[in-house]
Amino acid sequence: MTADEATHSEAPATADPRPTPPTRPDRSECCDSGCDPCVFDLYAEEVTRYRAALAAWEARHAQPIEHEGEPGKKR
Predict the structure, then answer these.
(1) Cα→Cα distances 56→8, 29, 42, 53, 72, Å
(2) Nearest 5°: CA angle at 53, between 14 and 64?
(3) What pLDDT, in 10s, does the model give residues 5-47?
(4) Domain of life here (predicted)?
(5) Contacts of 1 by beta carbon, 8 Å cutoff, 6+ apart
(6) How many alpha carbons lie under 13 Å from residue 60 in its C-beta half-sphere?
């Protein structure tokens, strides 16, 4: 276990909150003039970053699964 992993496992859940999804832009926020980047392009990039952050958060907060009848033995 690295020092970083030890810090995460000992930190309270409030110190590592679940990422929140980005807010989808309202249709009225797009000017329909072909901007580069469009507000929806920026939103798509935010969703990609959110999904990566959520996957990392879920991995940090995953609970080890124990075999039935074998305490301490993980799959």
Answers:
(1) 12, 31, 21, 5, 24
(2) 65
(3) 555 555 566 799 999 999 999 999 999 999 999 999 999 999 9
(4) Bacteria
(5) 9
(6) 22
- Entry pTM: 0.65
**Alpha-carbon distances, residue 73 vs 3, 42, 62, 68 (angstroms):** 23, 45, 16, 9
Torsion of CA 45, 46, 52, 55, to 10 degrees: -140
Collapsing DSSP to helix, strand or coil, 74 comes out as strand
**Degrees to nearest 5, angle at CA 36 with 35 and 37:** 105
Please report, for the chain, the start and end positions of each structural domain, with discontinuous segments joined by +. Answer: 34-62
Q: Which two tokens stand for residue 15?
A: 């110190």
Length of the chain: 75
Round the CA-based radius of gyration of the chain to a whole number and report it.
Answer: 19
